[in-house]
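Collaborator request, handled under Task 6.
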Amino acid sequence: MSDSGGNRSDNLRMMRKLLVIAVMMFGFGYLLIPVYKHICEVLGINNITQKDGTAGLEANTQVDTSRKITVELDSNAHGPWRFRPTQRSVEVHPGELVTVVYEVVNIQPRTVHAQAIPSYAPTNVSAYFKKMDCFCFKQQTLKANEARQMPVVFYIDPKLPRDVKTFTLSYTFFEIAGLDQTASR
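Structure tokens returned to the collaborator:
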């Protein structure tokens, strides 16, 4: 019996030690976040927000402010709608993030499905035209008489040859035939 009593007291002592270790580990994990934030603030690293509340974002150093490129915006419509850019052209610095908007109006009393196809002139600039977001990435469904503003977010690679001063971004908007027949089956 004394042997089992000794085991029991050893087990209780071990359980207390493990409980203390578990509590210390929890406390260490709980305090790690504020300690980490304080260390980063003192060292000046990984600052997301400055003390005045403004974001710690610096200017984009990849923007080539020494030159401007004129991007002419064009549109072609093959279908039952009006389709056009909201502005004729935009001047951009290579590397600068730009948003332009195209507008489409379905002038039919029915729903239509469409897709936009981009083209560039001269064609060699397409390798330097980088779209981040574009309505041309997916098919569009326009309800009867619906009007929609559709953005294109892009930048021009600063490696664009220096002799290119102007280029044209054109979209052709096509109706996708046959989707209504397959949807009603």
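The cover message to the collaborator said: "The first helix runs from residue 2 to 43. The chain has two helices and nine strands. Please let us know whether this matches your experimental observations."
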